[in-house]
Amino acid sequence: CMVRHYKFNVVLKNTTRLCSTKPIVTVNGRYPGPTLVAREDDTILVKVVNHVKYNLSIHWHGIRQIRTGWADGPAYITQCPIQPGQNYVYNFTLTGQRGTLWYHAHILWLRATVHGAIVILPKRDVPYPFPKPHKEEIVVLGEWWKSDVEAVINEALKSGLAPNASDAHTINGHPGPVPGCPSKGYMLPVTPGKMYMLRIINAALNEELFFKIAGHQLTVVEVDATYVKPFKIDTIVIAPGQTTNVLVTTHRGGGKYMVAASTFMDAPIAVDNVTATATLHYSGSLTSAATTLTSTPPKNATSVATNFISSLRSLNSEQYPANVPLKIDHSLLFTVGLGVNPCPTCVNGSRVVASINNVTFVMPKISLLQAHFFNISGVFTSDFPGNPPAPFNYTSTQVTNFATKQGTRLYRLAYNDTVQLVLQDTGMITPENHPLHLHGFNFFEVGRGLGNFNPKEDPKKFNLVDPVERNTIGVPSGGWTAIRFRADNPGVWFMHCHLEVHTTWGLKMAFVVDNGKGPNESLLPPPSDFPKC
Ligand code: C2O
User: Are residues 465 and 372 in the same domain?
Assistant: First the structure.
């Protein structure tokens, strides 16, 4: 295995989109940032140098960080931020992982522009479990604000109201032509009669997206860096945090075809952001040739999303078995949703909050992982409730009594404990999709449904054979999903909604996993350049 060194200079860079220019925070002046390429079991060292005025930290989304939680990246969860002028070397090994993942800033809303792809190739001489593509391409989906993104969130926090929606979506950094700004979008050159693999990443802050290409079917082969049983579909849905690899076979002919990423949001109150477009450009076709267009599903096209999601199955082959935990040590039910708390200084005297089991998470002043490792008391408590305060009809709108409690409460697991966690959406203000991301683990999605989870009937229908394995799961609007994982990674592991606005409002918590007794079951000590608060 190799050791690979990268240097990330985090710098401001003047960037023009939607016909206006502003300085954005970037990695090495690039948006999206540079791609990390490595092989399974390689070690990666990334020296991050902070040249901007903001505190900074970078998360390697989906990398398990086995025993190296100090390199995970969420600010105040596993590390203190890298302060302006400081640097930190993230040092981790890609144990048993291959596929498409990504990195992003994990503090404030800096991840809007600080993100990029991680490509982990299989070990040398290990083929993909599908035919080798002619070429591989990275497709990063994002979101663009004309105004300063940090100002957008600060304004929202002050007012207690929802932040402004973004002004456009992007494909590899470009919105494509939009009303009032006829710019060129991203162009992907292809050769006729070849198979391509697209590594698609949703790096948007607040939007689940549909993705499709005019006149071409997509064969889905991998999600969140785990192989799935291949299937053909024309539209995929991808939530912030998720990654999806698809194969696309080009026609014998030529032409230009629209690639589109559009909003999926089936909440009653839905923002319809601008669709991003790019072009699949066959070699030899004239630039002036007409582009074959495609329409995108309406933003509330739940059936299109369900059609994709219900087709996902682990490959579960001899080489890549699905090791679903069958005996469960902790059976948990977490409600996820929005609420309203009093706020004397806010517009309306109240603010929108979000919670898990009615706990709105309060960020600590030093990192939870340090508090755990060095036994510093008074930073967190280990009493996160395993069930909601009282069972009720979660999915109906509650007009009263939806204030939440605040706390920095963690749920404690012993090394190797197994967990079944039902994530139940609530409709206190309105039911909404919530893409929940768990750091430090992959999990299996064993079931999902609409309405209230039924603990007697629903488990009978669980798929314990070949459920999809992921690190970020969309909890359906007004429904639930059940996941299972094994706590075989000691440390403190954040779990949160990957819609940045919901995380900001408090839809987050963390698991603390104690060390095991074996020689390789303990968290390593922090590196010597570990940032201080
Ligand atoms: Cu991709 Cu905690 O995030």
Answer: yes
